[in-house]
Amino acid sequence: MYHYPAANPSTRHPIPFVYLNGGPVRGISVLDHRLLQLLARQGYDVHAYEQAGGGRSDLLPMGKYTISRSVRDLAAFIDRLDRGKVDILGFSSGGAVLTRALASTSVAARLHQAIIAEPGPMDGPTAHIAGHKGRKSARGLAPDLTGPRSTRVPRYAVAFGLMRLGLLSSDTGLIGQAEGVNAFTAADLGSDTASAYCARDAHRIPTEDTAQNFSFSPAAGLRIQQTVKDSPSIAPQLRRSRTPAMLMIAECSSQVRQWGTTVLAHDPAIQRTQYMPGVGHHMWNGLDDNNDRAVAVITAFLQGKRAPLPMNAAQP
User: Fold this and answer.
1) What is the pLDDT of residues 129-168, one digit of tens each?
2) Could you tell me which residues are beta bridge partners of residue 3?
3) Pick from 94, 11, 79, 80: which is nearest to 45 by CA?
4) Could you give the CA distance from residue 77 to residue 118 in angstroms, rounded to a whole number?
5) Burial 243-272 (b: 16+ CB within 10 A, else e)
6) Nearest to residue 39, comparing CAs of 15, 17, 9?
7) Sign of the torsion angle spanned by Cα atoms 105, 112, 252, 164
8) Count of beta carbons in the 10 Å neighbourhood of residue 140
9) Crossing angle for the helix pair 154-164 and 218-229, nearest 10 degrees?
10) How far apart (Å, rounded) are the C-alpha atoms in residues 97 and 139?
11) Residue 87 · residue 113 · CB < 8 Å
């Protein structure tokens, strides 16, 4: 667990703040840590954990990686804090976990306010949507990341490629889970990293990870994504949500827009839909004033203040 206590006790907010990172099954990036530190300076008592199999968390047997397990782990983490209800920000696949938590009456009872940022698909029907994305990203425009790549080694390249295509199961014996985690590098994610930035930022993409913090399990991540695809609709349960929530969508989003708008359509408790201009999927990226803008949007919602940026009207 990571904990960034409120920097100034006199401005400390009483409700703890929890961050759910994206991935899935990836360590928390350096850029995410910087955002969390900024929130701590605003008086928030910030907590984050790396989900099972990612970062410093232990590996699970491959069959244990499921989206339902991710939601249960979130509930267990909040219970472990033992501080009552929490405010929570879920980013990317973390936003999908948070959406499913909002659809669970027992887990949602632990949540005070929720922010869903650039979510992945929330269930099987949503996962099969192919639709519009945001403005052009830096994918295909950014220089290749330097450093070693496991995907240039034939055995890894073939195995990871076949797993991604669904032609090889994630629990294949061709590559052990720990071996895959240790072999995969930040350079292997180069095109995916570039897709999280606007095209205009293609030649100034910041370093998201270091050799010390980078961890990514491609097999476990694909396994969780498959359990999302195989899950039934959660729309009926989500319609009963009463947790005040905000949806954040980026201008140059590489996510399918309908993944976010489906959440908006079915969650009656979403009070704001905040459009973030000038940024890609990774909205707090350290470029220009993007981190400060993200913090301003997040804190304004949590404190019930007027949005600092123009926002789309939330739908009932």
Assistant:
1) 988 899 999 999 999 888 888 888 878 888 888 887 777 7
2) 47
3) 11
4) 22
5) bbbbbbbbebbbbbebbbbbbbebbbbbeb
6) 17
7) negative
8) 11
9) 10
10) 26
11) yes
Q: What is the pLDDT of residues 184-218, one digit of tens each?
A: 888 888 888 999 999 999 999 999 988 788 888 88
Residues in Cβ contact with 211 at an 8 Å cutoff, skipping those fewer than 6 apart: none
Alpha-carbon gap, residue 281 to 279, rounded angstroms: 7
Tens of pLDDT along 2-58?
999 999 777 889 999 999 999 899 999 999 999 999 999 999 999 999 989 888 888
The full set of domains in the chain, from first to last, is: 2-134+216-302 (3.40.50.1820)
pTM: 0.93
Residue 164, C-beta contacts closer than 8 angstroms, at least 6 positions apart: 218, 222
Which residues, other chains included, contact 250 with Cβ-Cβ below 8 Å and sequence gap of 6+? 118, 134, 276, 279, 280, 281, 283
Q: Locate 78 and state its tokens.
A: 């909040």
Q: Amino acid identity, residue 275?
A: Y
Phi/psi of residue 252, nearest 5 degrees: -100, 40
Residue 177, both tokens: 């889970």
